[in-house]
Amino acid sequence: MTDCEGDGSVGLTPVEIYEKLSAQGDQVRVLKTQKADKADIDTAVQLLLKLKVDYKKLTGQDYKAGCPPTDNVVQSDNGPASEEGDDLVDPWTVSTNSAKGVDYDKLIVRFGSSKIDQELVDRIEKVIGQRAHRFLRRGKFFSHRDMNLVLDAYENKKSFYLYTGRGPSSQAMHVGHLIPFIFTKWLQDVFDIPLVIQLTDDEKYLWKDLTLEDCQRFAVENAKDIIACGFDVNKTFIFSDLEYMGSSPSFYRNVVKIQKHVTFNQVKGIFGFTDSDCIGKISFPAIQAAPSFSNSFPQIFNDRKDVTCLIPCAIDQDPYFRMTRDVAPRIGYPKPALLHSTFFPALQGAQTKMSASDANSSIFLTDTPKQIKTKVNKYAFSGGKDTIEEHRKHGGNTEVDVAFMYLTFFLEDDEQLEKIRQDYSSGALLTGELKKMLIDTLQPIISTHQERRKQVTEDMVKQFMTPRKLDFNY
Ligand code: TYM
């Protein structure tokens, strides 16, 4: 057992917490290598996560093994860094102490967004004249900003457009990244509207230890995965910042306008930047904000600045758009609306999101059927009991079971999902059987994706990424 009861980091300096964190990381590794008792590993992981949250709160920096805290530490003062005991959710870190995952109801209150309730889902169904996507029916997209205004406008025959994005930090995207893209594709189909997709190769160059060439290459590779989701080339513009910024005066004019209206203090408060962050990071939020304004794309919107933007993304990206919405009226533009998704959890449990920087936490879009099977069987955190007898008697816990959580994202049939929930909770269904259902669901989804990706040629990427008019008249 580790010494994880109580608050192990109260009163410690940044360097002391850093050292404690490093030791705790080692401890988790040792326990895992020794195949220690699951409860002991879980407790050690919980303490590790808590220390990471405390470290970020105290230093404003993410913990990185081998990188001790720098001298210029500041207390991050709002939004992302949270009150004692709250979950940590920002564009770089998602962590919670709860095996059930982030408390999304609490997050809505803290971020000041609105819940997607049944009334809104019903309204969307009424407006589009068809059943809502399973992500809406099941609360995977759970929060919004101004979606009712978008629907009001749409009902009055006013168009809007979609904007989403990807930070190309590596060649391979993971299944979690598919969530916003699958949903965006559905929105594009049901509303029949333009879509712009930003590839922030500049962001990844600034944040990661990568060359500009790496980031640009990853942008093109990631664009292929995005195209393989089925977007319509006549309705979609995909752009890399490193390319488009230099060729579009309209885009850059908006970036500069935003930069003029947001202070260093504000971005420090929103993103937790410190004095030792490079100035590229400090001004980057303006670049992620700019596509929210339609005149950043004069070729699509004929220079109009009043076309409303709707942004589907996971809620980790909300800090960028809180800033965007704050600045919009001050520079004469409409505020973008948002639809926020929950996180697709890491294989090891819902305490963190699936993240490409931890290969064992993720199922990649490049994984083979065998790799998927091995990862699910080996790593997917189980809510089942330790022995078959106990499981049959007491049943499993679907609220913490990762295989079940993944099925809630990918299994289309609501009735089948409910039956699995009941059978697993009653003990009729065993962990191995549940994992097999997940494997059987994921393998064809990933294989089909890989097939579609193979069909995406360099020419098609070029077509999607060429600034041009789309099939809409403005
Ligand atoms: P990135 O590359 O980290 O993530 C791309 C999109 O995937 C979402 N996401 C997830 N969704 C569910 N479960 C997960 N485990 C998970 N991990 C990531 C992200 O919320 C995002 O929607 N800075 C951005 C790129 C960007 C962007 C945007 C994203 C630029 N403009 C507009 C959304 C909307 C980034 O690095 O995303």
From TrEMBL:
Q: Where is this region: Disordered?
A: 68-90
Is ATP-binding given among the entry's keywords?
A: yes
Q: Which GO terms describe its molecular function?
A: ATP binding; tryptophan-tRNA ligase activity
Keywords in alphabetical order: Aminoacyl-tRNA synthetase, ATP-binding, Ligase, Nucleotide-binding, Phosphoprotein, Protein biosynthesis
Q: What is its EC number?
A: 6.1.1.2
Cross-referenced Gene3D superfamilies: HUPs, S15/NS1, RNA-binding, Tyrosyl-Transfer RNA Synthetase
Q: Origin, by domain of life?
A: Eukaryota
Q: Which GO terms describe its biological process?
A: tryptophanyl-tRNA aminoacylation
Asked whether the keyword Protein transport is assigned, the reply is no
Q: What is this protein called?
A: Tryptophan--tRNA ligase, cytoplasmic
Originating organism: Clupea harengus (Atlantic herring)
